[in-house]
């Protein structure tokens, strides 16, 4: 049987590329299953056939750890990401800084974000805006979507003039423009934790190591992710 | 107004090819089960679109296959009593009755609803739903519904088949009044010869989708050659006369071309025209004037036509005055009495054998 | 009660009721019309219309939401037309949520009504025509009352579906608390956060209770109507 | 086998309260529209669950309200011809006909399907669907379906109302044969007095949900006091006799207690029992022996009973031999002839006035 | 063709067909039974059963999926029972996807069939009983043929819904390529990746084509049946 990897949906392209490389190198194949982090966590809890999980949220990884579903010591903070403010047209840059004029830019329009209380990118975004002291001015003008992709689509299609997404997402969508990057200290560190499950087979550990290899790192970087050291 | 029908239609396994005119009054469509009566009525109503032909009422063209004219049903201004009721199940009896009145507004006023309700004996049912009615009650409501829509053309498909004879006897005069007081053509399907004979102005006999014979009721019914088509046992001719007197002991005297005919008491006023059906089997023949007989009606007559069928009987056409009457006697009697065309004899007719339902 | 659920969740319940009610009510006439057309008329494009009506059932809801966004968004052809002509905006408004719910529920509504229409005996409609009733009148006085149970079923199915619709709604109008955050969006949000299952569960209970009440009501009404038609 | 019915049931606005026994043979349920005939039949079939009472066939208890027994319809082993056909629309005529045979397996064999198909004239329809049949054709198929299920109890609700008289005349003898050759009780609803008189062994007259009179047909029909309930104009008594001879000229001689009655040719073999209905309106009275009359049947008689109603007629019960016959004459005739109980006279009866359908 | 869509997408199409087919076929008998019971029998708990059947329509699909996961997962009470007793696993298998699809489609199927049963004239069933047919036989020879169009409608609705079902499926059995990745899950996955919209679009087209073909077929068949019943 192949190594079974359950991963957050936003990692799809990058992981597929790396899995292909891994197979070329070792002859082992990996089955990649993508879903929301919460879904993955619950499914692993219910006995999903996963050897390796890769989530977009530390909270859900903690949740799994608390249930003794992860192999002790296998957890790594594999990736990081950065938050960017995007715009639908080649609008003048707007650098997120304390008190920056986000509300003025929005006017009656909406700021697209993922669910600010549920989806990691939304949670980080809200934290950043709060930190910068502008959340209250825009709170009523946030259109929350169920995942980052939809937020991106809202901006790309022009429905929302501005949005907050991961840099990795923004990079892949040619119809949006990065207007500014959020300072790393404006929000908790963004991490994509990875870990082996208690039932993981040996090849899974090998794949996890491969994910941490420089080769994989360059692929991740090329898709806009940040590698923690 | 005359309804004129010339249509062709093919069902798988059955071909309809009829042409007839229905003048004002009642045109009876008569024929065996499956002979095409309902199909003709449906075509007139616009529920069946014939393959070819035309249908017109007076100068209104209702259907013309060639010119691709087909007036939709709701604009044909007709009333249709269906063979199977077709009451609206979700409406009360009253609402069913009134359904057509809405569209009849502006047409010649007809009887008020109360009168028809009373006539049909459906007063106690007005607030019920059709689902809670008996078979005959349903049919009565269906009749009322059609009558109340004030149609210019009335189609009735075996309207009285589900009713008992007492109720029939109450409703028939009403249909006759409709026939006499309006010029609405009425197309009337029935299996009952006495019923047809009583009310029909015109008779159209169908057989296997074709018209076997059609014409004025009086002429068709007095012809011994037509009798077999109607069912020989139900043969009988029509006499017309004028009411002369209502006697105290319950006998009405009717003056006709051959003298005075005594009938059970009639309601019609003195001076009114009355049509009486005399069944062939109720007319006795005598070679000499009978005496001491309970029959009140004995007339000198002349034999005009004799028709011997395959059965045991002989059908005799008699002329009494200028009227024609049929008598049916056994072959044995005919031989013993030596009946022959041109011979004079006496026709004996019991008063009570003129059944109430045959007077109208 | 407010405590038990929290004000945000209550707002979601109120909004979901509003959205589902209007989605059902406003799509009903069109649903009846389309069902009638599909059942009784033969016109070119009948099958196409039929397919179109069923599309939201076949497509993943997200796709439907995305298509709605493309058409009815402020930049979409229909959306911009509506906004310029009538000043009527769907995107990011509760009206848009109602549209999404209506579209998603439409196939269920139409199919239910259509089955009811198919079951009406055309002989009764013919009888009404012989009494002089024009087609529209026949429809209003004969067909419509007879299919009332079917319409009720269609409406309640649509309402229930609208109460549960998530994918298309969040994709089309996002989740703006108080404006477009319906119960399913709220439940979804709670389910994404570890440990918030109990709040989600409470919301589930509330929406189930509402839908069940509606269901029971429709059941009672439609039985009563059917009994009335059968003549008690 | 005897069917015994004692039931009470309340509809809103209508109360059914009947008790009668239906011995082997045909029991005619007779009554006006809405008098409760169909309701009784439905109760026997198990389609209506009465509020109170019992229903049993021979020793089989079908229903007992108190003991909460209610045998389900499909185990009552009955055949039911409904007032409204109720053919299965998705099955062909043939499949409709054969539907009940499957469950009849093992019961006493009955007529093969071919015979019944021919009798009912539905051969050409076998492969059609009910939707493509005429009203009368549907009813014929419904009759066939019930007969072919080989029932131990046959319920027929106006089975012949939709049929023309020729077809009726073909089907009635078959029902009579069923009556005579099996001991299946048949509950037969009809509005037609001649039909009832011809085939009924027992008559149950209903009025507004109650039994007005019930008993053997011959006794009930010869009683002038019952006549109004049946419709006075349809009154008539039954004569039984033995076929003596079939003459070449189409006359059958029937020996009965009062002498020899001449009838139109019958098919029954010499020596067979025959029952003849003599309509009251077809019997003339004469105070002296008439001569030169076309009537073959003239019998000396004695007046047993006179009944004068509200109408113009007098109903006279005559004894001829040991048999009873009814005659209806006008009041005028009765007065003129001075009719009185005990008086001797002559009863004149035209041969052909014994209608074919009244013989059986 | 394989090129046009890619092997993963084709696998999803094949799997969706398999899942929808079995989900529809296997739930049909139960659907007919439940519809009949709801339409014709009066038993305590009727309304409860009715509510239960409709639950998947009312709940956001994610919740239904979650509940399925809790009950039928390998650690869930039903799931572990099935596995231990029959060695039959639903969780994270295509069989589980079929279960999810069946559950989500069940209310649509039952309602369609129930409407058809409601429209059958009980007088015909009575007539069959007078001819000696026991209840089950009456059902098989009278009721069932008469509701055939309704059953077809129910089945096709269920099939269409199964083809489009996403939320419950991905929550219950996840999105494992070749095993549980149905067309909607695949579309979802492709939509998560910028630049893959065209693959997603192609998948949408394929699933629409399949569902439309099924729809058309059911339409043709059910019209033919209805015409047959009406006597050609
Ligand atoms: N479900 C019902 N609810 C209320 N009243 C009913 C119901 N069914 C029948 N009735 C009434 O009971 C009476 C008897 O009905 P039933 O059908 O037995 O009459 P019937 O003698 O068969 O009449 P017909 O000769 O017209 O068929 C009628 O007055 C009818 O209106
Ligand atoms: N839709 C149809 N398809 C095929 N044949 C049909 C159709 N409708 C009627 N027929 C046939 O046409 C013939 C005439 O039917 P119609 O209903 O006009 O007869 P009818 O004279 O009214 O008979 P009844 O007195 O029995 O009602 C019948 O043989 C019938 O079987
Ligand atoms: O069809 Mo859904 O899966 O209710 O949004
Ligand atoms: Mg007819
Ligand atoms: Mg009746």
UniProtKB/TrEMBL annotation, chains B, D:
The top EC class, named as a word, is hydrolase
Q: Which Gene3D superfamilies match?
A: 2.40.50.100, P-loop containing nucleotide triphosphate hydrolases
Q: Which SMART domains match?
A: AAA
Record key words, sorted: ATP-binding, Cell inner membrane, Cell membrane, Hydrolase, Membrane, Molybdenum, Nucleotide-binding, Translocase, Transport
Q: Which GO terms describe its molecular function?
A: ABC-type transporter activity; ATP binding; ATP hydrolysis activity; molybdate ion transmembrane transporter activity
Q: Name one Pfam family in it.
A: TOBE
Q: Which residues form the ABC transporter domain?
A: 5-233
Task: Tell me if Transport is a UniProt keyword of this record.
Answer: yes
Keyword presence, Oxidoreductase: no
Entry GO terms, CC: membrane
EC no.? 3.6.3.29
Q: What is this protein called?
A: Molybdenum import ATP-binding protein modC
TrEMBL record, chains C, E:
The source's domain of life comes to Bacteria
User: What transmembrane ranges does the database entry give?
Assistant: 20-39, 51-72, 92-117, 137-160, 200-218
Is Cell inner membrane found in the keyword set? yes
Where does the record place it? Cell inner membrane; Cell membrane
Provide the topology term for how it sits in the membrane.
Answer: Multi-pass membrane protein
Hey, what's the signal peptide range on this chain? none
Identify one Gene Ontology CC term for this UniProt entry. Answer: plasma membrane
Which protein family is it in? Belongs to the binding-protein-dependent transport system permease family. CysTW subfamily.
Could you identify this protein by its name? Molybdenum transport system permease
Q: Which gene produces this protein?
A: modB
């Amino acid at each position: 049987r192949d190594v079974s990897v359950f991963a957050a949906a936003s990692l799809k392209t990058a992981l597929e590329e790396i899995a292909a490389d891994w197979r070329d190198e070792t002859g082992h194949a990996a089955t990649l299953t993508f879903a929301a982090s919460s879904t993955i966590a619950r499914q692993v809890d219910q006995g999903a056939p996963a050897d390796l999980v890769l989530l977009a949220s530390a909270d859900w990884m903690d949740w799994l750890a608390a249930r003794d579903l992860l192999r002790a010591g296998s957890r790594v903070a594999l990736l990081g990401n950065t938050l960017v403010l995007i715009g639908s047209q080649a609008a003048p840059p707007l650098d997120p800084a304390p008190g920056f004029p986000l509300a003025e830019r929005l006017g009656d329009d909406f700021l697209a974000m993922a669910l600010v209380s549920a989806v990691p990118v939304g949670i980080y975004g809200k934290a950043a805006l709060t930190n910068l002291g502008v959340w209250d001015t825009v709170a009523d003008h946030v259109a929350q979507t169920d995942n980052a992709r939809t937020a991106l689509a809202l901006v790309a299609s022009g429905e929302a003039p501005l949005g907050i997404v991961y840099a990795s997402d923004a990079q892949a969508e040619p119809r949006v423009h990065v207007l500014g990057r959020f300072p790393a200290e404006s929000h908790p560190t963004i991490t994509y934790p990875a870990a082996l499950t208690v039932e993981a087979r040996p090849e899974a550990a090998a794949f996890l190591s491969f994910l941490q290899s420089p080769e994989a790192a360059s692929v991740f970087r090329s898709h806009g992710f940040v590698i923690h050291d | 107004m005359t309804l004129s029908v010339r249509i062709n239609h093919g069902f798988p396994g059955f071909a309809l090819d009829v042409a007839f005119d229905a003048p004002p009054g009642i045109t009876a469509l008569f024929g065996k089960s499956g002979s095409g009566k309902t199909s003709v009525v449906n075509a007139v109503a616009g529920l069946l679109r014939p393959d070819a032909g035309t249908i017109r009422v007076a100068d209104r063209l209702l259907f013309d296959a060639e010119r691709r004219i087909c007036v939709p049903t709701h604009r044909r201004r007709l009333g249709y009593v269906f063979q199977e009721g077709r009451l609206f199940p979700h409406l009360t009896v009253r609402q069913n009755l009134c359904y057509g009145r809405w569209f009849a507004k502006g047409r010649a006023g007809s009887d008020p609803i109360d009168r028809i309700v009373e006539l049909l004996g459906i007063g106690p049912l007005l607030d019920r739903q059709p689902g809670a009615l008996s078979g005959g009650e349903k049919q009565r409501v269906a009749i009322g519904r059609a009558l109340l829509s004030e149609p210019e053309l009335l189609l009735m498909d075996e309207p009285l088949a589900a009713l008992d004879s007492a109720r029939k006897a109450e409703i028939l005069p009403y249909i006759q009044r409709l026939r006499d007081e309006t010029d609405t053509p009425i197309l009337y399907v029935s299996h009952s010869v006495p019923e047809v004979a009583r009310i029909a102005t015109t008779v159209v006999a169908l057989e296997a989708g074709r018209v076997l014979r059609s014409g004025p009721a009086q002429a068709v019914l007095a012809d011994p050659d037509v009798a077999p088509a109607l069912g020989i046992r139900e043969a009988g001719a029509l006499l017309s006369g004028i009411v002369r007197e209502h006697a105290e002991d319950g006998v009405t005297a009717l003056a006709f071309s051959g003298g005075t005919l005594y009938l059970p008491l009639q309601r019609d006023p003195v001076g009114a025209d009355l049509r009486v059906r005399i069944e062939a089997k109720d007319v006795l023949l005598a070679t000499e004037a009978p005496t001491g007989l309970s029959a009140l009606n004995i007339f000198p007559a002349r034999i005009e036509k004799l028709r011997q069928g395959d059965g045991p009987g002989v059908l005799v056409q008699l002329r009494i005055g200028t009227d024609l009457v049929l008598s049916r006697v056994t072959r044995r009697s005919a031989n013993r009495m030596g009946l022959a065309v041109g011979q004079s004899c006496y026709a004996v007719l019991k008063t009570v054998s003129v059944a109430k339902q045959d007077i109208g | 009660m407010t405590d038990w659920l929290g004000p945000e969740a209550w707002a979601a319940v109120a909004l979901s009721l509003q959205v589902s009610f209007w989605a059902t009510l406003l799509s009903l006439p069109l649903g009846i019309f389309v069902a009638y057309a599909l059942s009784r008329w033969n016109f070119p494009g009948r099958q196409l219309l039929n397919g179109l009506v069923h599309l939201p059932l076949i497509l993943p809801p997200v796709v439907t939401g995305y298509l709605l966004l493309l058409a009815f968004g402020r930049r979409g052809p229909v959306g911009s037309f509506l906004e310029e002509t009538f000043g009527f905006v769907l995107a990011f408004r509760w009206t848009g949520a109602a549209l999404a719910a209506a579209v998603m529920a439409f196939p269920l509504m139409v199919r239910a009504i259509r089955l009811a229409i198919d079951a009406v005996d055309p002989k009764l409609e013919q009888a009404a025509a012989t009494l002089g009733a024009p087609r529209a009148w026949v429809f209003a006085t004969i067909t419509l009352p007879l299919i009332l149970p079917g319409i009720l079923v269609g409406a309640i199915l649509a309402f229930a579906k609208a109460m549960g619709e998530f994918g298309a709604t969040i994709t089309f109008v996002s989740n703006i608390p108080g404006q477009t955050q319906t119960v399913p969006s709220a439940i979804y949000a709670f389910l994404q956060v570890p440990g918030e299952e109990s709040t989600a569960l409470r919301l589930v209970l509330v929406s189930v209770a509402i839908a069940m009440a509606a269901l029971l009501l429709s059941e009672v009404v439609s039985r009563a109507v059917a009994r009335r038609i059968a003549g008690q």
